[in-house]
């Protein structure tokens, strides 16, 4: 296994372009993207709809190769999907015929993780996401927020190097969304699992991320990066204290200006 010093980044995109080509049409989705993700970072990618955020994540997940540039995981070329990069989408893709517990177990079974260890991991994460008592239910018996919790547990149980989340709370109602933000923030503060989180919600990005990367409209380029510290206040300040602070409001406005080009 390669463990040289050069692997200081979990994921690196270097000068990445992606152009979709079909028949006679070409769509330049992202352009000259450079991102380095360090262990323990919580990076939020923020940008208008259609600017190439999902495209970027699909490249990191290994679903697509860049048209130009390099995509690396631990210094090696990303070569397809792997459980070391756990993906959570806006619509949780659970197996409808499996219980909560079996959905979470699925990846571990595929990887032939010993039964006892698998059970321990599943119990730990079902407890962490507050679904222990619902473990026997099927997805159709769960609310949207609960389904999304299962989707998160299902990737965390594999102990991925990085959690790749594409607008994971975008389809939830406002209250559930806030609960899920708090849960994710709590999980991150507990074990500093590296996260790449895509959103078009400025407040969500500011509240959760240690770094917010702002993209331009398509073809998506990085226009600015902000180092953010609100997520570290988990134990000292509540959400409304943060959201109504001057510092938060100023950052919100700066980012809004960038995105809308005001
Ligand atoms: N498979 C595809 N074929 C052609 N164009 C695509 C494809 N997927 C996405 N696009 C286009 O690429 C651009 C970026 O898409 P996407 O990455 O999904 O943006 P975002 O997630 O920021 O909304 C959009 O203009 C979209 O229509
Ligand atoms: Mg998208």
Do you know the CATH architecture of the largest domain?
3-Layer(aba) Sandwich
The overall number of domains is 2
Query: What would CATH call the class of the largest domain?
Result: Alpha Beta
Strand content: 15-25%
**Helicity, as a percent range:** 25-40%
Determine the structural class based on helices, strands and strand pairing: alpha/beta
Ions, cofactors and other ligands present here are:
adenosine-5'-diphosphate, magnesium ion
Spatial separation of the terminal alpha carbons: 49 Å
Largest sheet, spatial ordering of strands: 6-7-8-3-9-10
**Total beta strand runs:** 10
Radius of gyration: 19 Å
Q: What is CATH's topology name of the largest domain? A: Rossmann fold
What can you see in these coordinates?
The protein is an alpha/beta fold. The chain folds into two domains: 11-84 and 160-260, Rossmann fold (3-Layer(aba) Sandwich); 94-157, no CATH class. 35% of the residues lie in helices and 24% in strands. The protein contains eight helices and ten strands. It has helices spanning 53-61, 100-110, 115-128, 144-156, 174-191, 202-208, 239-243, 246-260, and strands at residues 11-22, 25-37, 42-46, 68-73, 76-77, 85-88, 162-166, 194-199, 211-215, 222-227. The strands form two sheets. A six-stranded mixed beta sheet has the order 6-7-8-3-9-10, with helices on both faces. Strands 2-1-4-5 form a four-stranded antiparallel beta sheet, with helices on one face. α2 (100-110) packs parallel to α4 and α3 (115-128) packs across α4. The N and C termini lie far apart (49 Å). The model has no long low-confidence stretch (mean pLDDT 91). The chain binds adenosine-5'-diphosphate (ADP) and magnesium ion (MG). Its EC number is 7.6.2.9. It comes from Clostridium tyrobutyricum DIVETGP. InterPro entries: AAA+_ATPase (IPR003593), ABC_transporter-like_ATP-bd (IPR003439), ABC_transporter-like_CS (IPR017871), ABC_transporter_ATP-bind (IPR050166), P-loop_NTPase (IPR027417).
